[in-house]
């Protein structure tokens, strides 16, 4: 239980893209700006997570330990990942593989952001993986926003009336679900 008081939410946000101009990472930064004062969105990069090796699980690298600690401390998880060849990115899957055997992930409420309406395969596969890992997908908090092909960066997303409202609505649904589940 990490909420400082009843209505405070601490959320961990992961992007499946390492690209500097990533739409997925931009969406997470926009969400962090759009979040109300009682909702803290902590974006944690996955670029320093080494390739998963089960042999190293008992002596995990410091970046993995840090990720697990952030996950344990959060009330909910937000994931935004591109689709690569109909799957989630290796960056995201690799990070998730490190989290399979621990208890930090179990029952964690999850919001998914899909920044491309055509990217249905990766979302379906990501959902299957997250459910298999005993995460709690919050259906009302899943949002698809048409960023791919747009010119929108973080500030553009924040300023976009429809897209920013969709993000805020999903975030609100996630926080509602967290409240209900506690
Ligand atoms: C290696 C690679 C494979 C891709 N495969 C797909 C795909 O299968 N389906 C799709 O809709 N987009 C695909 N794309 C497009 C990306 O999903 C798109 O560029 C997305 O914006 C990348 O996310 P980012 O902006 O957060 O980096 C692919 C892009 C790359 C680089």
TrEMBL record:
<keyword id="KW-0288">FMN</keyword>
<dbReference type="InterPro" id="IPR050712">
    <property type="entry name" value="NAD(P)H-dep_reductase"/>
</dbReference>
<keyword id="KW-0285">Flavoprotein</keyword>
<feature type="domain" description="NADPH-dependent FMN reductase-like">
    <location>
        <begin position="10"/>
        <end position="145"/>
    </location>
</feature>
<feature type="signal peptide">
    <location>
        <begin position="1"/>
        <end position="20"/>
    </location>
</feature>
<keyword id="KW-0732">Signal</keyword>
<dbReference type="InterPro" id="IPR005025">
    <property type="entry name" value="FMN_Rdtase-like_dom"/>
</dbReference>
<dbReference type="InterPro" id="IPR029039">
    <property type="entry name" value="Flavoprotein-like_sf"/>
</dbReference>
<dbReference type="Pfam" id="PF03358">
    <property type="entry name" value="FMN_red"/>
</dbReference>
<protein>
    <submittedName>
        <fullName>NAD(P)H-dependent oxidoreductase</fullName>
    </submittedName>
</protein>
């Amino acid at each position: 239980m990490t909420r400082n008081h009843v209505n405070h939410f601490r959320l961990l946000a992961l992007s499946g893209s390492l690209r500097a101009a990533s739409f997925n990472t931009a969406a997470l930064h926009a969400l962090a700006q759009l979040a109300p004062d009682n909702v803290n969105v902590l974006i944690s990069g996955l670029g320093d997570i080494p390739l998963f090796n089960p042999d190293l699980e008992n002596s995990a690298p410091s970046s993995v330990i840090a990720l697990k600690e952030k996950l344990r401390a959060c009330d909910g998880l937000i994931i935004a990942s591109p689709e690569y060849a109909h799957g989630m990115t290796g960056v995201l899957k690799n990070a998730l593989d490190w989290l399979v055997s621990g208890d930090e992930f179990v029952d964690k409420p999850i919001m998914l952001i899909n920044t491309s309406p055509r990217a249905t395969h990766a979302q379906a596969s990501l959902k299957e993986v997250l459910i298999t890992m005993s995460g709690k997908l919050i259906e009302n908090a899943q949002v698809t926003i048409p960023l791919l092909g747009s010119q929108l960066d973080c500030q553009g997303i924040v300023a976009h009336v429809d897209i920013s409202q969709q993000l805020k609505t999903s975030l609100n649904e996630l926080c509602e679900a967290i409240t209900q589940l506690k």
